[in-house]
Design a protein that fits this description.
single chain; two-stranded antiparallel sheet; 2 strands; 57% helix
């Protein structure tokens, strides 16, 4: 094995598993510089052609390849900085390897979130595979900025395929961090002092990129109040549509905002309630003022323009303007545009996060998005009742998928009962429900599942809960 191959092999598996005499990072930096200069250490004093970029990537995953004009002067830039965080324990790391290897692989996001919460990093030998998974799956990137540590960011700087990591939060401040760090900082400050967070954003707003502006606006959802209204109203004039949409979504949650009042006027012009009938006249055009307030003029395929404009107006109008509780409105007759009005009310309940409307509209159209407007306890109560009354189908799976973890005993028992019932009639139809139960039920309830029924599918749930319970114990020794 050549010196280069030995370095590459040790870097991939880590010095814990393959001891290396000396400083591995310094040795790697020297070797990289020599190769970039056209020299190899395999034959002292000899001069050979430097390997191509493709060859280097094959030899060392994470190496970016040679650059013209580089020399030994780049040694310092090539060495990975020292780690600042302690790595997770051996057992936790071994479980991560098992998960990445395919054992309950859907638990990877949960493992990463739980590990990041401890403030630790992953060991070096898992980095290449973990970074490669992050390249293919955006959903797991959010915690990798912390978990990958300094060496992970060093590798990301060498391999363009992994440079997404450089955009993930690492714990830096507003002034020094990248976009993700600054979002994380703003989110933390928003929780502690909403007004100060908004003032900080206002102070740099004109210098932010369009993409950053859209994401920064969404951070203001936490602690949202009328104090934010002037800033959000001004954001409706932004050049980027995503910024305008984000601002309009937040203003919709403020019934007293100028935008909400403009929408209220448009809604009243379209809808008249008399006795037990709701008369609707959908808008005939979409003007620039409507577009400024977040109304998108072009409808999706399959929806007419007037229906599309009507739904958007009613979804952004304050729910209080209807003057009746939602349960009473749902009993009224709507001769024209019935489906469009009710779909708009569903969207309004979601946008405005109104518990009463979410509760009522869930009865009309049980979609997972409505559950987000309810506190966790009520989410689970509503979902448990739905499980008891509804057959196992894709809609039931979608509703359960919208209930935040960890499911407590009430919902857990309802789901386990459903599994036992279906196991006697349609055992082939249980796959997704069993996985979802094992992934969402509070892992501390694995004794409940273990003793609930000897049915194989229930025991599979219990085994997965035990796997997760052990996972948390390893991360919090």
């Amino acid at each position: 094995m050549t010196s280069w191959e030995e370095l590459a092999s040790t870097a991939l598996v880590g010095t814990d598993r393959r001891p290396y005499q000396g400083d591995l990072l310094d040795a790697a930096a020297v070797e990289v510089a020599r190769r970039r200069a056209g020299r190899k250490t395999g034959a002292a004093g000899s001069r050979e052609q430097a390997p191509s970029a493709a060859e280097q990537r094959q030899q060392v995953p994470g190496a970016a390849g040679p650059q013209d004009g580089s020399s030994a002067a780049s040694l310092e830039a090539q060495a990975a900085p020292a780690e600042e965080r302690v790595a997770v324990g051996r057992r936790a790391a071994e479980r991560l390897v098992r998960i990445m290897g395919g054992e309950h692989e859907r638990l990877l996001p949960e493992w990463l979130a739980a590990a990041a919460a401890t403030g630790r990093r992953v060991p070096p030998y898992v980095l290449p595979e973990l970074l490669e998974k992050g390249r293919r799956d955006r959903s797991i990137r959010v915690h990798l900025g912390v978990l990958a540590g300094q060496r992970g960011r060093w590798l990301a700087g060498l391999n363009p395929a992994w440079d997404y990591l450089l955009e993930e939060p690492t714990g830096e401040t507003w002034e020094l961090g990248g976009a993700a760090d600054r979002r994380a900082h703003l989110r933390t400050l928003r929780t502690a002092d909403p007004e100060q967070a908004r003032r900080l954003l206002e102070s740099t707003w004109e210098r932010e990129t369009p993409d950053d502006r859209a994401e920064f606006v969404e951070v203001l959802a936490d602690g949202l109040s009328m104090e934010d209204e002037p800033f959000l109203e001004s954001a409706l004039d932004d050049r980027r549509r995503e910024v305008r949409q984000a601002a309009a979504n937040l203003l919709t949650r403020l019934p007293g905002s100028r935008m909400s009042q403009r929408m209220a006027g448009r809604a009243r012009a379209c809808v008249t309630i008399s006795r037990k009938v709701i008369a609707v006249d959908a808008p005939h055009d979409c003007d620039k003022a409507m577009e400024r307030d977040g109304i998108r003029p072009k409808p999706p395929r399959g929806i007419g323009e007037r229906a599309w404009w009507l739904q958007q107006i009613l979804a952004r109008a304050p729910l209080s303007i209807w003057g009746h509780p939602p349960a009473a409105l749902l009993k009224m007759k709507i001769p024209d545009w019935d489906a469009e009005v009710k779909a708009a009310w569903v969207r309004a309940a979601v946008l405005q996060k109104d518990p009463e409307w979410a509760r009522a509209m869930f009865g009309w159209d049980p979609i997972a998005d409505l559950l987000e407007s309810l506190p966790p306890d009520e989410q689970q109560e509503l979902a448990a009742d739905f499980v008891k009354k509804h057959d196992l189908d894709s809609q039931l799976i979608m509703v359960l998928g919208g209930v935040s973890s960890h499911w407590r005993e009430g919902l857990a028992t309802a789901v386990l009962r459903k599994i036992v019932k279906v196991a006697t009639t349609q055992p082939w139809n249980l796959g997704e429900l069993v996985k979802l139960a094992g992934e969402r039920i509070d892992p501390a309830l694995f004794p409940l599942a273990l003793s609930y029924s000897p049915v194989e599918s229930v025991q599979q749930v219990a085994a997965l809960l035990r796997f997760r319970a052990d996972m948390y114990k390893e991360l919090h020794p």
